[in-house]
Amino acid sequence: MVNPLSLISGRLRMRHLRLLAVLAEHGSLRKASEIMSVTQPALSKNLHEIEELVGEALFIRNPKGIYPNTLGEALIRYARLVFADLGGLHKELSALQSGSIGNIHIGGISALTNSLLPQTVAFLKRAHPLLDISVEVETSDLLLRALEQDQLDLVIARIPEGYPTENLNFTEFSAEIIVPVARYDHPEMSNRELTLETLSQYSWVIQARPAPLRTIFHQLFRDAQVSPPGSTVETSSTLLSLSLLKESDMISLQPVALINYYEKMNIIARLPVSLSIKMNSYGLISRKNRIPTAAMQVVAEAFLSHAGL
Predict the structure, then answer these.
(1) Reduced to 3 states, what is the DSSP secondary structure of residue 124?
(2) DSSP per residue, 48-62
(3) Beta bridge partners of 278
(4) Which of 45, 64, 185, 271 is a good FRET partner for 52, with 20 to 30 A between their CA atoms?
(5) Distance of alpha carbon 270 from alpha carbon 263, whole angstroms
(6) C-alpha–C-alpha distance, residues 214 and 289, integer Å
């Protein structure tokens, strides 16, 4: 039986966690001995101490070596998180000492690239010139994957249907409205009797699976009982999608927030057909088990403010 938390937290030491982290990275007691400058017998003793603290066996020992069991793997994951947070703490302390508030890696969906993302980033650079910001624009599923792998600190995206949310914090900003669009002087722009069946005769630019817009594309034609377009171009690049629309008679589904920007410049416009789809709300997403840095707090507050929250 696993020992009470009070016993584990009171006696578990950083040297125990460091040993677990080194073992996880190198998978060898001999290698861990070299890296930590500690004899193998001493490390074996430390492993026994950890098992006594937890109250259960954590490793499988055989002539070929030592391997973590399920409980050992769980403890190793925890050790990795502790040292990852320590690394983040050191970076933040160094940045604060130099007069900066550190660095931040943000992810955002393409619909926000002409509104919330540039507005907030520009504000942050004016308010905190020494804050290093990197921004990745991708579909929600890829952004969430990067967030959970600590490749991103904060994400402004939506949570796809069925995506596990138990480890995520989500602050809702707004729902997205999706409409069919084309170049502003498309032949069908003046057609006041335009139907989805007519649009299906054109080539369409669609997102790659499993992006939500790809699912909506298929659902739109299925619900209307209209055969989907026979000619499509598949791409995950919003910039390429808009460029293809501009250079051809192709059709695409795009968020209103993105199209508003291009309509003002007479590049892309909404087609005169009574079709609009409301997608799941997007918002600010972070990991629950991630300790926020000073930079994360400042950036999160800026996004909340610019989103009107």
Answers:
(1) helix
(2) HHHHHHHTS--EEEE
(3) 177
(4) 64
(5) 8
(6) 31
Evaluate if residue 245 carries a pLDDT over 60: yes
73: its two tokens: 């793997």
d(CA 223, CA 210): 19
Determine how many CB atoms are found less than 10 A away from the CB of residue 197. Answer: 12
Which among 236, 116, 254 is positioned nearest to 183, based on CA atoms? Answer: 254
Long-range contact pairs involving 72-78 (C-beta distance under 8 Å, separation at least 24): 75/20, 75/50, 76/20, 76/21, 76/23, 76/24, 78/17
Of how many residues is the chain composed? 309
CA pair distance 217, 205, nearest whole angstrom: 10
Structural domains in the chain? 5-93 (1.10.10.10), 100-175+281-306 (3.40.190.10), 177-277 (3.40.190.10)
Q: Which amino acid is at 9?
A: S
Higher pLDDT, 10 or 215: 215
What pLDDT, in 10s, does the model give residues 75-107?
877 777 777 666 666 666 666 555 556 789 999
Angle between helix 40-54 and 70-97 (nearest 10): 100
Residue carrying the six token digits 């969906």: 109
Distance CA 150, CA 233 (A): 32
Query: Can you tell me which residue has the tokens 């900003």?
Result: 173
Question: Do 259 and 181 contact (CB within 8 A), yes or no?
Answer: yes
**Rounded Cα gap, residues 287 and 148, in angstroms:** 7
DSSP state of 179: E
